[in-house]
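Most newcomers find our protein records easier to grasp once they have seen one. Read left to right, the backbone structure tokens trace the chain's path through space. Once this layout is familiar, the rest of the handout is easier to follow. The record below serves as our worked example for the rest of this section:


***
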Amino acid sequence: MNRKLYLAVIGIFFLVLLFGAPFLKAGYDAGVFEVRDLGNRGEEAVFYDGTPIDGALNTLVRFKKSLNDLYTNFMPGYYETVFAYGKASDTLNAPTAALYADMRKNAAKKPADVPPPTGTDTLSAGDGSSAEPDLTEPAEPEPPVDPRDEVVSVTSTLLKTTGTHRYYRIDAEFGDGFKTSFLDTAVVLSDKSKESRVIMQAKKLNRIAEAVPEVNFWFMLFTRMQDTDYYEDVIVGEESTEKYADLFLSLLDERITAQKWEIGTLRDRVERVYLTDHHWSTYGSWLGFCQLCEMICPDHEPVALGEAIDFPESRFYGSAARHCQTLDLWDPFVVYDYDLGKYNCSPSWRFNQQVKKLSKAKYVTPDVNIYAIFFPEVYIVNYPDNHTGRNLLVIGDSYTQGFVELLGSAFDTTVAYYYTHYAGMNYRSVIEEYGITDVLFEQFSDRILFDLYGDDQLSAIVLD
């Protein structure tokens, strides 16, 4: 009897898990109830290209990935279990993590350089006379490093490895006394795979630019720390992907004017990018706007940064924090009042209304993406008082959220397509319908360089 009861309980438990996830997902999609979602996604989906049965194979791949995502985020009790585990893990592993970080720091130390001889001493020749002094001009002294950019110490600790990334926690101190901790990643791909993916992705982007050569085509690569020359000094043992970013840019068609978003120093990384995410912060997006204006419309005076508004009762947990369950590390959420003037957008969005809405709320758990709540997807922005004669089409990813309203201030009308909506987008028709004069393609490097998640959907854009 007890055995039958035991088997019945086990059977009911597995039935709840089996049917609970689809039930929760259906209710969530229908808006019947909310599901606390940590935002975790399944392993990399490898899509097929060049085989006779690409369509059938990729359908199976997408089904497998959807099933994996379903039984990750919508499994009954998943959020509560992971949240409790993350808190316990932070507490129990803190001493070990500190010891490991110290070991990595010591291993990264370089031998001290041998001091050069002073220029005031002469060398004794074999005959007892003094040798001629070296009359070559001394090298120009390097300019002093700004204390804000001077890295006094930096350590990294491996937190987690997935099919696409290794996740690290970095602790850094700068010359002006500023200390911080943040999360960053290393791409888990072979060098051969990185190169082949870059070549394929460049071909896809070139095909889009070639489809309508009459418009100005611009590209901004949203740089990750791994795409910089200082990355290997921060996370010892991992390789920079800077050469792959440069390879991608070198392969672009001559009609594409391209640039990287600038995070040239480690200080830039922590000030312009969220500490717990790959995404640029609201401050970083304004700097990106200024950088784009210099490239696309140098005669346009960018709007000022404006007043900073924070929400001290709330926390922003980025995707890296959710993946690694580092609940002791989050970002304060800060926005800026750009005073953009008169404009219309669809769907309707107003900065002041969003400030009031978020000021009344308190978000302190990782299941809520505050950035997406404050900056929903906006598809059309029109500035009626602008008379630039230029209309912009933005083809981007989530970096476009909260940015298209700002970028649109330099144009008459701006139309945005996010990567989740590329499928079925008729590129030529959109250009003709809105009188597009300029196209800006923008994606972060994981997606555009390597199609790391199999979701860039560039091939789904209709170009005929």
Summary: Residues 78-108 form the longest helix (31 residues). The two ends are 69 Å apart (CA to CA). DSSP finds 14 helices and twelve strands in the chain.
